[in-house]
Write a sequence for this structure.
């Protein structure tokens, strides 16, 4: 009897544990009837309200988080008695967005939230924010200082929805020392896939035992890179004009360019010119800073970290993001994350306070501070002209590549980037295809087609869900 | 639910050893009060069970039949569509990988600490240091352990690869080769559960009566024979406990998969709980319906394993 009882009890608790795992994400429906409108209040909304305290959810950790804190302190000191911003760190972009979704349902949403570029369509569809354009129109703010390519990403139908904040674009990073040693010119980095292969053959070093001690090339199989390659080829990543003429219905994964790219990547691995890396960029970054790979792809945001961790070991050079074909005439998308002013359930004073803060973070002096302390690309043209910024770039000539690259990128639907509600899933799907082709040896076209197919369901479901 | 109503319930009339009239009258309310008190004591437990187990269970069943809007709110009924979606080779692979993962974690995760614990019960100088050192992984959180191992195996800076190089062995692609990726995640999980299991098993071994062993020795059972026939049955309660808790840990493993491989390469380390997490929270997904359906599958798997473990294994456990 005793053992039977215990058996039943433990068995039940085992079942119970698994059951809670099943239901821990039960979302509670809460239709907030009193949802705040999307109209922007005028500056007078703050009059006579005392100190308005607002919450800002962000995903900036480490050095970037410290810089954000510094800027926020500056803002709070300047607006004492009027606005007080409370910073709340919400871990990764993914977690921040998850938390925001849950908060909308429970009425605990913050006043300002930082969302990654691929969450843009979702944020618009959530109907919970006040478009930045409304504030701009009410205030008649001059937005000509914002880099047009950056504003391009967050603009739909000519309307700026969120304020770009931390932006970056990808570059080709090179180990300058290894380049010189291999008899290559680091001032003239490879520009296409073929040129990378050629350079990688000279850069790959083996030891006496035949083991590779330095690979010519190595980058994470990161979905963002695939999107960038597409834009560099001036191609659209999803239909309906990259989701900017209407709702996108398919992600164009199985294109000839993508097949060519993955076949090339697989060949690089097979030839022993590149190591097998997965989609984790940290792993690839470490391989580069350890000198294991001589060329890598990374965001401009990684420059500072790279320079610090390779100090005294080797020198770093940068090149434009490579192109799949020599004739490709596009340029990389400038993504990152942007700031959204939350309107749902917020009174005018809070909305206005949120806008004041966002405006402050976007101005040229804040952006110069932000750029020079984090390495993110400044969204303000004027920031690049400030003394502090000029000095910073002079000390890091590698960053000049990014500035030139941006100036040479034509603004088109292709370089604006794909806008899709299911974009985060689409990026993951692209990574699955990249991993299948490069790591498991699946035929590139088959791998890409399979993921393209797999994405049609989620995209359709998303579109249906927001349609009615 | 007050005492008077309970005393009002009629007692069986023809009771044989009925106490004398006066005693009975006081005993019955006392028993009722005891029952009520018992109920009162179990109430917090029942409430907890209701709020955290029974309610979520029904919630999961309800959610599994609903679609979701982009914020994750349940919308219209979709019937059994989510369960239908599970009848794919892809989900079969997930179940298979979960099984492989669980078996590969539980077997070495119990045997390895057992083989370490056996010599450790010897009263030798310095054993305490070893025991502490071996039990240390227990103190690691899943995420910390995963991140540390990811660095240990990073192709650029891996000390493990360096040692392999000294031995003249090729370094595998720890997290990027489908087979190796599973082995790596399994290995880290085994490393993590070993510390706790070592403590449990060492405690079990320390509790083995010297006299029993001596008697066995006199009867001629020494060495491996003694271990298998005498020691193992004596520590079987600890062993059983280790097996059950390790199975649970393996079945619910999420952090190490998410951090080390994110289910990759190309889904080769995708397990059931990772899949639930992926559908519900990852990559801005909010498919709570499908995730709940998968959660119910996890429930069934959990119950099946519990039936096997408690129906078959526990019968062989020797409780003193």
């Amino acid at each position: 009897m005793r053992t039977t009882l215990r058996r039943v009890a433990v068995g039940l608790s085992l079942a119970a544990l698994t059951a809670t795992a099943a239901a821990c994400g039960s979302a509670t429906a809460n239709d907030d009837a009193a949802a705040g409108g999307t109209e922007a209040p005028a500056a007078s909304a703050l009059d006579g309200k005392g100190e308005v305290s607002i919450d800002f959810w962000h995903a900036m950790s480490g050095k970037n988080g410290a810089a954000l804190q510094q800027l926020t302190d500056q803002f709070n000191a300047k607006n004492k008695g009027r606005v007080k911003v409370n910073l709340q760190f919400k871990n990764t972009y993914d977690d921040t967005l998850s938390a925001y979704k849950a908060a909308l349902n429970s009425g605990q949403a913050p006043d300002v939230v930082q969302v990654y570029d691929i969450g843009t369509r979702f944020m618009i569809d959530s109907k919970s924010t006040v478009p930045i354009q409304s504030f701009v129109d009410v205030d008649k703010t001059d937005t000509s200082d914002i880099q047009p390519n950056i504003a391009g990403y967050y603009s739909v139908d000519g309307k700026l929805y969120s304020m770009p904040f931390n932006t970056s674009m990808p570059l080709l990073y090179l180990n300058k020392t290894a380049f010189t040693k291999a008899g290559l010119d680091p001032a003239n980095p490879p520009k296409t896939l073929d040129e990378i292969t050629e350079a990688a053959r000279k850069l790959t070093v083996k030891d006496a035992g035949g083991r590779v001690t330095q690979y010519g090339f190595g980058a994470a199989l990161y979905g963002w890179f695939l999107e960038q390659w597409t834009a560099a080829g001036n191609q659209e990543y999803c239909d309906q004009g990259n989701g900017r003429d209407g709702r996108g219905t398919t992600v164009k994964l199985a294109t000839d360019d993508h097949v060519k790219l993955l076949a090339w990547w697989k060949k690089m691995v097979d030839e022993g010119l590149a190591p097998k890396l997965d989609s984790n960029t940290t792993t690839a970054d470490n391989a580069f800073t350890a000198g294991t790979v001589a060329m890598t792809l990374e965001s401009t945001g990684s420059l500072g970290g790279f320079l610090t961790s390779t100090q005294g070991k080797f020198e770093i050079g940068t090149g434009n993001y490579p192109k799949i074909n020599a004739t490709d005439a596009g340029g990389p998308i400038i993504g990152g994350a942007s700031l959204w002013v939350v309107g749902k359930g917020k009174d005018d004073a809070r909305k206005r306070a949120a806008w004041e803060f966002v405006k402050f973070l976007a101005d040229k002096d804040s952006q110069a501070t932000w750029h020079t302390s984090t390495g993110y690309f400044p969204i303000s043209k004027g920031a690049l002209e400030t003394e502090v910024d000029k000095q910073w770039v002079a000390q890091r000539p590698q960053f000049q590549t990014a500035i030139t690259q941006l100036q040479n990128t034509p603004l088109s639907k292709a370089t604006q980037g794909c806008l899709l509600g299911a974009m985060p899933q689409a990026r993951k799907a692209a990574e699955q295809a990249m991993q299948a082709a490069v790591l498991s040896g699946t035929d590139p076209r088959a791998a890409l087609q399979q993921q393209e197919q797999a994405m049609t369901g989620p995209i359709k479901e998303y579109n249906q869900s927001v349609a009615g | 639910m007050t005492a008077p109503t309970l005393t009002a319930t009629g007692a069986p009339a023809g009771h044989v050893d009925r106490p004398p009239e006066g005693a009975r009258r006081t005993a019955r309310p006392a028993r009722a009060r005891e029952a009520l008190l018992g109920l009162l004591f179990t109430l917090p437990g029942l409430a907890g069970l209701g709020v955290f187990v029974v309610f979520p269970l029904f919630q999961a069943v309800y959610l599994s039949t609903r679609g979701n809007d982009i914020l994750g709110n349940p919308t219209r009924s979709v019937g059994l569509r989510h369960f239908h979606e599970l009848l794919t080779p892809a989900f079969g692979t997930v179940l298979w990988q979960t099984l492989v993962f669980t078996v590969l974690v539980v077997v070495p995760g119990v045997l390895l600490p057992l083989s370490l614990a056996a010599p450790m019960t010897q009263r030798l100088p310095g054993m305490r240091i070893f025991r502490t050192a071996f039990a240390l992984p227990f103190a690691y959180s899943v995420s910390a352990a995963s991140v540390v191992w990811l660095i240990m195996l990073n192709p650029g800076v891996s000390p493990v690869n360096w040692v392999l190089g000294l031995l003249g062995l090729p370094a595998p692609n720890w997290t990027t080769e489908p087979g190796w990726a599973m082995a790596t995640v399994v290995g880290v999980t085994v490393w993590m559960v070993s510390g706790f299991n070592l403590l449990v098993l060492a405690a079990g071994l320390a509790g083995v009566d010297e006299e029993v062993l001596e008697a066995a020795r006199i009867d001629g059972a020494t060495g491996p024979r003694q271990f298998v026939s005498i020691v193992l049955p004596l520590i079987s309660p600890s062993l059983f406990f280790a097996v059950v808790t390790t199975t649970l840990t393996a079945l619910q493993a999420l952090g190490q998969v998410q951090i080390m491989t994110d289910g990759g390469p190309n889904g080769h380390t995708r397990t059931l709980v990772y899949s639930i997490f992926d559908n519900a929270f990852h990559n801005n997904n909010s498919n709570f319906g499908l995730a709940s359906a998968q959660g119910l599958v996890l429930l069934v798997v959990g119950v099946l394993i519990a039936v096997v473990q408690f129906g078959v294994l526990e019968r062989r456990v020797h409780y003193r």
